[in-house]
Amino acid sequence: MWLPTEQDKYGVVLANFRGTVQNGLPLEIGDTVQILEKCEGWYRGFVLKNPNAKGIFPCSYIHLKAADIKNKGQFETVVPKEDTVITEMTSTLRDWGTMWKQLYVKNEGDLFHRLWHVMNEILDLRRQVLLGHLTHDRMKDVKQHITARLDWGNEQLCLDLVPRKDFSMVDPDDISVTELYRLMEHRHRKKETPVPASTHHLFVHMKSLMSSNLGEELEVFFFIYDSRENRPLSERFFVKLNKNGVPKSPEKTERQCTLFVDLGSGDLRKDVYIVVHIIRIGRMGAGEKKNTCSVQYRRPYGCAVVSIADLLTADSKDDHLLKVYACNTESDWNQIHENIIKKVNSRYNLSGSNTGLAVALQLLHGDIEQLRREYMAIFTRGVSITRKLGFSDVIMPGEMRNDLYITLEKGEFDKGGKTVARNVEVTVYALDMDGQILRGHVTAGSGEPGADEYHTFVLYHNNSPRWAEQIKLPIPVDMFRGSHVRFEFRHCSTKDKGEKKLFGFSFVPLMQEDGRTLPDGTHELIVHKCEENASLQDCARYLKLPFSKANLPGNNQAVKATKESFWITSFLCSTKLTQNGDMLDLLKWRAHPERISDSLSKLKEIDGSEIVKFLQDTLDTLFGILDESAQRHGLKVFDCLVHIINLLQDSKFEHFKPVMDTYIESHFAGALSYRDLIKVLKWYVDRIIEAEHQEHIQQVLKATEYIFKYIVQSRRLFALATGNQNEEEFRCCMHELFMSIRFFLSRKSQGTSPVTHTQAVFLRTFPAVYGELLKLFTVREVATFVRETLGSLPATTQADCPLEAVKLQCIAKTVESQLYTNPESRCILLPVVLRLLQSHMQEQKDLVMCGHILTSMLSLIRREDTEAAVSEEVDLIVDSLLGVLLRTILEISNRPQSTGSAMRMQFQDVTGEFVACLLALLKQMKDKHYQQLLQSFTSKDELRDFLLQLFTVFRILIRPEMFPKDWTVMRLVTNNVIITTVLYLSDALRKNFLNDKFDYKVWDSYFYLSVIFINQSCLQLETFSPSKRKKILEKYGDMRVMMGCEIFSMWQNLGEHKLNFIPAMIGPFLEVTLVPQPDLRNVMIPIFHDMMDWEQRRSGNFKQVEAKLIDKLDSLMSEGKGDETYRELFNSIIPLFGPYPSLLKKIERETWRESGISLIATVTRLMERLLDYRDCMKLGEVDGKKIGCTVSLLNFYKTELNKEEMYIRYIHKLYDLHMKAQNFTEASYTLLLYDELLEWSERPLREFLNYPMQSEWQRKEYLHLTIIQNFDRGKCWENGILLCRELADQYESYYDYRNLSKMRMMEASLYDKIMDQQRLEPEFFRVGFYGKKFPFFLRNKEFVCRGHDYERLEAFQQRMLSEFPHAIAMQHANQPDQTIYQAEAQYLQIYAVTPIPDSQDVLQRDGVPDNIKSFYKVNNIWRFRYDRPFHKGTKDKENEFKSLWVERTTLTLVQSLPGISRWFEVEKRELVEVSPLENAIEVIENKNLQLRTLITQCQTRQMQNINPLTMCLNGVIDAAVNGGLARYQEAFFVKDYIMNHPEDGDKIGRLRELMFEQAQILEFGLAVHEKFVPQDMRPLHKKLVDQFHLMKSSLGIQEFPAYVRASPIHFPNGSPRTGRNSMPNILSPEGGRVVPRRSPLSYPAVNRYSSSSLSSQASNEVSNITGQSESSDEVFNMQPSPSTSSLSSNHSASPNVTSSAPSSARGSPQLSEKHKHGRENSCLSPRERPCSAIFPNPLDPTQRTIPHPAGDSSLPRSDPNISNPDKVVRLAPSSWSLDIPLSDSVGKQVCPPVPPRPPYSGSPAKNIRSQSPGPASRSPQKTCAPPFTPSPTECQSAGLVANSPVLSGSYSSGISSLSRCSVSEASGTEAPASDHALPTSASSGSDELFRRENKTPPPYSVYERNNPRRPVPLPHSLSIPPPSTDAPPIPPKPHQLRSGKPDVDPRRLEQVPRPRPLPRKVSQL
């Protein structure tokens, strides 16, 4: 039976449990479980991380832990009974674990590994804490380490800052908000700015000396040297090295490592150095032989120097290799380091090129105890301490030190009867008063133990040696008296014996007879002569002698006159001995009572360090004198006491305050002193007002704290000794003292008078007195003292008075004092504190201090205190400060931020403190306080102002920048206080501001606050981790739902006043509805319905609701860019407005059902597009997805919503995307949408986007110029010309000839670019997006995309797959089925398609150059084609052509390409099947065109080699793969086929004609091939000729039929225009030399060939050639026929395409060189030619000819063979004829790239379409020749072939080599002629115009622009590129009256129905 557990409540899983039993709960090791019930070895419960899943699990899998149970019962929670640090570690590590894995996924490897190490470290530390074996101190260190690691990890992972107190997490409910704020701020500051250490230490590790000439032992001395003062700052560190240059005792690290301690910040300067002196131990001369002398001497070796400042920047881990220098002259050794520092190069040199000292140097910061913790390894392995000379910057009490430093400076000695100077060595001994040597008390430096003696180094032959060697004598204090130091001088002989002969000595006693030690400074000692045998053992004999020349009596001149002297410098650093005689006199005052007064006076002159050494003795002396002679010396003793107290205020001695405190508590015995102290203090206070000089009185008042300590302690001692006698007298004295104080404090002074400063001094020290007074008086008495004293301060003073700030400081210390923490005294002090605080806050002065005070006050109000006391305090604070607190926060928040970072931080701090105070105060307020507060307002206006202020402040508190982003704890507390307060105040809002008293401003502020409260990011629980969400819900619940319920309640109370908030609150409430919280949405949806209902009642529609909704949705998207939260919010609106039941059900019950549902449908569709836009905009680079999504949204705003402003905004967003992607043509079309909305009028337009305020004309002009520039950059010059014309018309109509001229020049430059510059024809690709995973605007749709330059199918496929990385590429071209459409995946189907141009009039016209035609082939394209071969019926294995059909798909787009996007959706699909016979006809037509092209190229020498022609001929003649023409004969010429397909008779005939034609072309081709074939390929040629004859015979051709011979085969581009002679034999190879006519720039040909039925090898050379025969009477022209493969087409430029003909053959002999030069290159079009272009209609009246006599040289430009290099217009040939009469030689007119501008007829905008030139069309140059009409029979010879598509070029998408098929763009099946087709190239007929009705937006094409509409200026981002020299910039339009809008072409209006008219807004966009 399952029983609820009592004790077993919480446990940890020990092993994985799969939960395979019935109702089993799967468990993972480490999970924590909460146990609910138990039954026979099984538990039932849940895992804490997923409390919803409950189940059973075995007891043996669980390790139970003790836990506390809260809310016992159904909703109980379990908290483990363990250290809070352990609990935090556990939960934090769990959270980190999940995020740690994500770091790996995100490829953040560095943080991943660092976090892994930290997590392991925390686990180890956790294990140590759980074991419980740590000491208290160690446990503290471990916890500190743990919390530091936790904080680091939280910061790295952007988690919340955890408030802690003593390493434990703090519950915000257990402390006040102000205390919480202080904890958070303290941790934040600690994280931001570590406090710089004031103490520094230098770690030195001596590694080795590297040198090639070692061999002797060395001594190395390190010390720190101040080059500014030329003195050492530290002792020396001494290391002994062996002969190899490494330390002698490597196992003893303290002998090679040291710490130079107690360096101040001032010592880390550039001029402070580490100096290293190296002394060698060995022979006198470094090069002496080893057996010369056995005695060793200390001799100078070298010196190294490094600046301490270099260590501040160097890597502390690096070893330093110091250069070692030696001095040039040995006598300069004592100052070698100075010379190196000063770089006196003449006095030193490198001791060796490879000599270096390897040392590790590291600067450490902090006090020594801190270093012991942080650098434990250094101290555990051993390190010697090297002290500073003298005391450190801070002297610590208890520090014992007694070091005497002696520096052996120099000596002066005579020769002693020698011929050369002596080698002097000094030996130093320390001896006690008995003459015994003090063992181990002579130290050369730290690192080595002390010795009995010290030997200086020896300078060779120097009677005036200078050593500057420092030694330390650490002699104990008790041995100091009577001790002395003896210096023995010896001459070191360099002879064989090497003996050291004593020749003199000096000595110096360490202490004088009066007890003073040897004074610091330099001493000149007397050198006493002696011999080696002289007995120095009896020191009493020589101690009677004088030791210093300074101390000699005057009559001893003989000794003074001696030259021999020895100088030393002594320095004593002692905490027990003094050199000061005045100090000794004071301490021995009883011995000399007459000197007391002098000694007291001199005390102020004694150095402070001497006083603190003897602090206790000095104080005993002072109080002893006071007790014995108070009347006589009382004032002086008091002054001395004040001096000593103030001395301890100095930072150097502040650590001695505890020493004085200890003295007062334990050693002070002056029981009678209090009377004298009170008396003198009162005497000083009473003199304050009259005194002229206040300095001394101020010094007295500074010492008030300790004076009161002495008074109180003295009184306590007296009361203890006497049984509390004289109590009343004491109290009376104290009251009188305080009366004097209050009197002087109440003095009101003008300005900054001395009295004011004295008042300030007292106020600074006064709060320190409270604690002392409490020792003798009750709490209430002391509180009364303080209240009266502070209350006596003058109320108001000048603004600049320093007393004001000091007042606040005093109040602050009072509030933080022990006195104020007592509730009994707090009620007494609170009024005076509040009064001072209120006055400062009202005047906005010293706000930082006010904030501190208020924080301290509110931190003391705790819920544990009695309810009445707390209530009374809260009442007082609310009455005094609530209003002024709100005003202060508003004032600070609205204050402009100052530039200084320090000031800004200060404002931020004070704002945070005031906010915390406000929150703490509101948190303490109960219902009673709110009632009292509301009753305190005397009028509604006051209440209204208060509520508005409070709501405004709450909005400020909700701002994200209010607190640092990781202060989630603080934000949650803030929100909890806000919602509690709002709930209290909502009743006041309902009672006071409804019905007739309705106040819109208050209600609006309330709703606005509620909305931003719900939407703030810290309350969006969905974004948090499960554990964090669970904690928040347990503590606070979902505050969004609570606020939502309050909004609903308040909304229901509004009644008819709801109309005031419609439509204003629609947007904000929609924002709330978007929050993904179901309960909140359930609450808010009725409000939405209510608003719709009220709007319907008022206006009968939803226009305002709709407008607001759309604006708000769009703005939400813009604001939340890149924010994942908004993505989720947007997702939530689809269920809201889509299938969400409650709203729709409510609407369906209303009378306005239809309009309501329509509104919801519109918003839903907009939402889908906005969601797609949001996803796309998150991507990095601009791609098709972004552009397509923007186009979709832009069209929606125009066609469905009719919102012009949003439409224009998205036009510019799309424009920016295109410009970023360098889609200049698409950018131009996009900007044209805005341009079309504007008119040429003077209507003023407001500022919009980046456009300035300007007239509509100016903005449209600017847009025109920008669009022209972009069309130019996109090489879409024809469109730019149309806009140039329109702009030129405007300039012309206003007589602005300057700009007109520039515009015409720009137009001319665009014409030049058309003729001169190369343009690549893009590929087009059909893309299908299938599957539900695609964005809405792509899903299950197909598009045609315009590829980039040089982009082929493979590259395009890769690009699309990179844009959609999750998509699957479909490998077939068939239409997908429904399973693909409905799949939860992404499928891409991509293949190449062929454009079908609409502009047939240009393409069919003869004589139009290819670089003009190429534009019309790939621009303004609506339809595209794709061919798929397949076999119908049974496939004939012998001849597959019989059943090879082609499925031809024609795609029609919603808009033409190019347009505002690179891709447009397919609107219509048409499917046609091409029979095998038709396919064969197309294949042979294409092959014939290919052959002609190659033959022409070969004939005109455009091919460098003949291989392409050879391969093509070989492929056709010897068709080994497909069988050649014979297969077609077998398939279609057999009787069975003819009988079964009688309807194909004409087609069979056509096929036969083409086959004969191919044979004719092959015969001519072989003739040309024979002429050019190289010798080594002759056998192949012969084989081809043989095969050709076989082929002819197989075709049954002996001689060509008459109709073939008679039919001329025209040039595709018209006949040549030179003077022509008859052609006797066009097939003769002798007529093969052709003069090429080429355009100025060679155009890379486009190969669309694949293997056909007639060839196995495709040719890559495609070009259009006009040729002139070599004999000038033979003309031969050819044109290519490209084709496409099934999925890709390859453009390639062959090097064989062009070649130069001899200059002698380039035309008429009359041609000038200028004209000849223009024909260097030929622009070769890659597109095939339609049949109508190859065989022009002879009756076409638009094709005019201009007569030109053959030999006329007067008009060279009219010669059709001559291109004008100025105009750069190239004329293309018109036909290719095998037999053409001489009389047919006529010129053809060139068609311009765009139709000429017609006579002005209204607006030029409506004329922007391609037109055929009329009878008056212009010639490329002016001519006087009249128009000439050709004979109607001129081209009749082509009649047999002209009406059939024999030579029509085509695009094919055949997949196999057997399916080469294509159809002409102009073939009847593709473009049937329409009877009512319009003669414009802008569209393909009115039927196409009318099929695009309202369901799609109107075409965005420059060809289809409607009547001019009002125009908008271009933002600065749409900057026009700098104009080229061809198109100079247009200057500003002259300011003159513009005409009204031009006429509108009525035909144009009929052609394009406008879907939804845009209303003219007055918004002036």
Question: Could you explain how this protein is built, in words?
Answer:
With 1965 residues, the chain is of the alpha+beta class. It contains 63 helices and 42 strands. Helix 35 runs parallel beside helix 37 and helix 53 packs across helix 56. The longest helix is centred in the middle third of the chain and has 28 residues. The protein is extended and about 155 Å long. The C terminus is likely disordered.
Q: Unreliable stretches, pLDDT < 50, 5 or more residues?
A: 899-907, 1120-1141, 1602-1964
Class of secondary structure makeup: alpha+beta
Instruction: Give the helix level as a range of percent.
Output: 40-55%
Question: How many separate helices?
Answer: 63
Overall 3D shape: extended
| Mean residue pLDDT | 75
Beta-strand residue fraction: 5-15%
The biggest sheet amounts to: 6 strands, antiparallel
Task: Please tally the β strands and state the result.
Answer: 42
Cα radius of gyration in angstroms: 53 Å
- N- to C-terminal distance: 79 Å
- Subunit arrangement of the protein: single chain
